[in-house]
Amino acid sequence: MSSYDYDLFVIGGGSGGVRAARVAASLGKRVAIAEEYRYGGTCVIRGCVPKKLFVYASQFHEHFEDAEGFGWTVGESSFDWKKLVAAKDAEIARLEGLYKKGLSGANADILETRAELVDAHTVRLMKTGQTVTAKTIIIATGGRPNPHAALPGHEFCISSNEAFHLEELPKSIVIAGGGYIAVEFANIFHGLGVETTLIYRGAEILSRFDEDLRRGLHEAMVAKGIRILCHDTLQKVSKGEDGLTLETMNNGTLQAGVVLLALGRDPNTEGLGLEAAGVAVDERGAIIVDDYSRTNIENIYALGDVTNRVQLTPVAIHEAMCFIETEYKNNPTRPDYDLIPTAVFSLPEIGTVGLSEEEAGKRYDELEVYRAQFRPLKATLSGRAERMIMKLIVDAASRKVVGAHILGHDAGEMAQLLGVTLKAGCTKDDFDQTMALHPTAAEELVTMYAPSYRVRDGQRV
Ligand code: NDP
Description:
Elements: E1 6-11, H1 15-26, E2 31-34, H2 41-46, H3 48-67, H4 81-105, E3 109-111, E4 115-119, E5 122-125, E6 131-139, E7 143-145, H5 160-163, E8 172-176, H6 180-191, E9 195-199, H7 211-224, E10 227-229, E11 234-240, E12 243-248, E13 253-256, E14 258-261, E15 265-267, H8 274-277, E16 300-302, H9 313-328, E17 342-344, E18 350-354, H10 357-363, E19 366-374, H11 377-382, E20 388-395, E21 401-407, H12 411-423, H13 428-432, E22 453-456, E23 459-460
Parallel strand pairs: 1-2, 1-6, 2-3, 6-16, 8-9, 8-14, 9-10
Antiparallel strand pairs: 4-5, 5-6, 7-15, 11-12, 12-13, 17-18, 18-21, 19-20, 19-22, 20-21, 22-23
Helix pairs in contact: 1-4, 1-9, 3-4, 3-6
The protein binds NADPH dihydro-nicotinamide-adenine-dinucleotide phosphate.
């Protein structure tokens, strides 16, 4: 029996922290976990899950319109924002309960308090001031929206946190940023009837995605009525009687009911007592870890967004499971960051895994690019002017599929399965030998027989 109060103390009750605590406790370790806000963390409480519920809500308008082409007459429809928020809150509360139930079922001590490090083995529970000790400590405190403090008037803006609890829907919104959150919320608010403008500093939204999909989504969003201002930034936000006035660098003055800043997320490390414990952070405040998520202090690990590696829930959970293998199963395991499937829940949706054409062009001498752009079957009767894009990036030398990119309905669902095929190292021949499933959109992935073009030394030929 060790002299510490606990074998493991986890600070932060989000995806990574809860997983590590629950599994360690189920292995018979004495575990405590502390959370200052709500169990479930960003993903469950004010991220992925409520966002996806909002995405569903925002798409009904298009479904009602599409129904007509299939013979339906849809009566007058209206949308109640407060009802959506209340329904979402009830579901989130249910999920939070399940997270806690999982922890208590495994016999972990659930602490509802902020916790700060006192030294490498001691944690202070801020609610009571009590200190407890642990042999091993995990920091899994996640991240928070970048407040963009340099922007005059940033205090009048909201982040994604507040977007989940707006008292009422504004008539108009300006969203700053061109990443996941900006693009997803632009689609959500537009779908709910809000006049939506996106303002992004770069040449094209979603800088880390395949160029084709970025352009395709941009065009589709503009066609729906979302205004996108690229090569521009907010210079100042001021509040008047009629709402907010925004000065931009290149597009003059804009008016908006709400301004949402979606300019990335910062690691949550302030005031955690990291200096007291001697834990090193980088210039952005992210905890520095080795390949096994261990900090510079032998018994302290850090998982998830607080380490600013890949800010995705499944990655934090995977890091937690690798920690369990490493620390408790005598099986040192490094998180594997290769081929992480990802989706942007816009309308149309992006689903992607592996390298973009641009990245692959830098890595391989020659690529075969298979590309299909087509009108999905449903759009023939709905009359909606939408196009799906599907793209496979193939290393010409090995025939391995190194990237798969989809824009269109259910792209995220397809990307998950494509993730399995790429992870298994499937070649284009494996795709060719797979029977098509007809009639689906996904059958295009196995029926693109000839390359649309080749890329040699990074140049299309
Ligand atoms: P992202 O990193 O995706 O995007 C941040 C955006 O803000 C980029 O367009 C960036 O521009 C821009 N930006 C950053 N700083 C400034 C600045 N000072 N002035 C102007 N523009 C700026 O972050 P998000 O906030 O959208 O999302 C945070 C993370 O959450 C993501 O990285 C993602 O991992 C995760 N997430 C995942 C989702 C999913 O899986 N579907 C959904 C939502 C979030 P530039 O591109 O030029 O750098």
